[in-house]
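User: For documentation purposes, I need each entry recorded in a consistent format: the amino acid sequence on its own, followed directly by the corresponding structure tokens. There are two entries in this batch. Please keep commentary to a minimum and don't merge the entries.

Assistant: Recorded as requested. Entry 1:
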Amino acid sequence: MTEFQEKLRQQHEESMHRELQALLATADKAEAEISRKDFDGFKKLFHRFLQVKGPAVDWAKINRPPEDSIQPYDRIKAKGLPDDIAACLNKLAVVKLNGGLGTSMGCKGPKSLISVRNENTFLDLTVQQIEHLNKAFKADVPLVLMNSFNTDEDTKKILQKYKHHKVKIHTFNQSRYPRINKESLLPIATNIGMGGDNAEAWYPPGHGDVYASFHNSGLLDKLIAEGKEYIFVSNIDNLGATVDLFILNHLMSQPADKRCEFIMEVTDKTRADVKGGTLIQYENHLRLLEIAQVPKAHVDEFKSVTKFKIFNTNNLWISLPAMKRLQQKNSMDLEIIVNPKTLDGGLNVIQLETAVGAAIKSFDNALGVNVPRSRFLPVKTSSDLLLVMSNLYSLDAGSLTMSRMREFPTTPHVKLGSSFTKVQQFLARFESIPDMLELDHLTVSGDVTFGKNVSLKGTVIIIANHGDRIDIPAGAMLENKIVSGNLRILDH
């Protein structure tokens, strides 16, 4: 049987190789060069995908990480800061993962261009944060954006507006991989183009691609030549992911032979984070365990808040020389995430992806740092958007911080129904964002609008059944209330 499977595997690889060559033949010279590099990476991934059967982890070998491998943030903060912060900052570059579209929030174009606060987009806030650092410490921290073929063009147009800001901005593109037909295991693309029938034929292969595409773009070498030693990598939609000077100092103050090459910021799990990846000890290495790698029988155990107490925020600090070394040796073995999709026409395809944090096991002296929850503030839905637009946060030099007026450090739990999913709909339903300083929980469902200066406290549940509509009047104060039925307010 194994001989048969081996032959089948070879056959699949040969067929894939032929198809990719045929696609390359449809490209012009410049395009073929870029696509060839992309396809080399894709073939390695496909090869490993065919070899690995079953879950990527043996559940019995999973152990809790050793005590000293996940440090509490307070211990790192206790070291204080050096006199010359600029010297540390000058060895840092900030990388933002900017490959995603705003489609899940009903927006066209890159997600980073959605306005999140006082007309500022994710990108505006990022540029403001880094510019503030550079000015305050007379430093030179560049911003690097990893775009995808979906976001590159729109992002580059927008970058013109930051020309006079004190931030150098570089961009590079993550790879473009072919989606595979689930049955035939062959690409669905008919040529290298991205228009017409081919629009759905390609995908960006997850943020684990940052290592290869950063290296291929030449930017890795450029930054090393400029004296940069570390990058701080995070998702552009995580508004809590600002440059932390204490973590940076911790990295810079290590003795040369014990240099920590990789820090993953983790934070305590709540019930809302049960799907987040976690750190485990596996075969003597720290390793990231994602829900996609967990055998079905153990998914509930993985989601438990007691066994796996922390999750990965995807805020990572990575050594550039180490990254170069591992890329050159081709020794980063990132677990494959198989992402099944059904296209509009009903065709079942698979995308082979990798996660940036999965590389933690390949770096020396890797460390987890358990950071405050405030460093994890992602905006994935309109419910998240409501929180960051509200008076729960104050904005200072591009950074959001929890308002001092709020008595509890935790954010309220907000669930907005499907009428609020798209940003345009969401904005149309609020004349102004309610006062939420004393809110614990908000659930809104159905056709609901909010007038000006509404204030919400405690637990508030507002439910308009099908066909009903509820207009919360201007100036209303709802504290521990359930509102249901019909409430129409019309101009006289």
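Entry 2:
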Amino acid sequence: MELTSVKFLENRTILVTGATGFLAKIFVEKILRVQPNVKKLYLLLRAKDNKAALQRFNTEAVAKDLFKLLREKYGANLNTFISEKATIIAGDITCEKLGVKDPNLVEEMWREVDVIVNIAATTNFDERYDVALDLNTFGAIFVLDFAKKCSKLKVLLHVSTAFVSGEKAGLILETPYNLGETLNGTSGLDIDTENKVMEETLKQLKAEGSSEQSITSAMKELGLERARKYGWPNTYVFTKAMGEMLLGNLKEDIPLVILRPTIITSTFQEPFPGWVEGIRTIDSLAVGYGKGRLTCFLGDPKAVIDVIPADMVVNAMIVSMMAHANERGSQIIYQVGSSVSNPIDFISLQDYGLRYFRANPWINKDGKPVIVGKVTVLSTMDSFHRYMALHYLLPLKVLEIVNTTLCQYFQGKCLELHRKINFVMRLIDLYGPYLFFKGIFDDMNTEKLRREAKEAGIEMDVINFDPKSINWEDYFMNTHVPGVVKYVFK
């Protein structure tokens, strides 16, 4: 292991997949800002051609607030600087040669690329099984195959998720999953078989003349069914786990780093605090609560919610690829989270949300502030169903009867109550397995990396990934929740 500071990035050529994703954009901005002498960034994203890819990258990345420090630094020359440093490529990790159509460009990348950072994925919990398998499982192997052809490759960094552990309790170690390993001990997990099951189901649905909507619904159900058969709670983490299995089994002499972040939140420090894009996981709860649509929820108030700011994940990515460059045939896993070193519990998050939205009420579409109260947290599924029946389903049934009697006079209220119920039930369905999560993510490897980086003299203020430096109350009250609200109101 050798750590040399951000000078490692000087004159390096880095291929980034999924380049318009949340984490990828923060990674690219960071590289361009802290190491302008990077030789080349090949940024792969889905588009019909390279011109469309460039337009998409400019619209979805460069034009965002995220790049404001670079805009301040380079002014009118920013686009020139980015065009000199970055080649934006239309591609697809579900295809051979990553879907890059220009053979000369493929050969160029095989000659020049030093580091590959695979961030492309679908993170939808209930994604279609065919889509999730293509991206999260087999896409990882197309990236690996591409890496094997890169003559100068020093490291392949694959971003996974800590929740490949499913619903395990206790200390979850930074260890790999072996091919065919399952979480519930059920035997028979074979990734090729999973692909055949998916293909045969899809073929049958099409032969039956099913609508696209019906096919999508059936493929989502298939993904959940296959995941739960082997002990994973949803399609996302199941397909990511299988991707890890294949990488570990097929990597040969490629230096492989697998990074497993926990729940990623807005930026802590860089390029500025509170940048976020998209409403994910706990943010769905915060927004629903602020809008007055979430008055009860299910979960263990004492459960630890493992969150980590996005810029800390990116910093860990940078340091880990420095640390393992040229370690032929090695594989290391880093879990990047906070539940061991700086845990925060559900009841604290609830308190921060209550205090924030009482001080800064959400303004609804009528221009009126939404007054929030304390959420009723139900500690069992039975108590949740009783609460929903008494407070929502029964009143809805009464309202529907009255509405019918009075010629749809209360139709608006009926629809609004339906929306509230559907919103809560959807959240329970998607996040239910994590509401009583008892796992703690060991980060011994990550802590060792932090220590070695500090001892090596790496600029830890520039690449901080120590969750112990976070004051959660200050972060959520003054950084994260305001960032989420700002994003929603854009």
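Summary note for entry 2:
The chain is about 50% helix and 10% strand.
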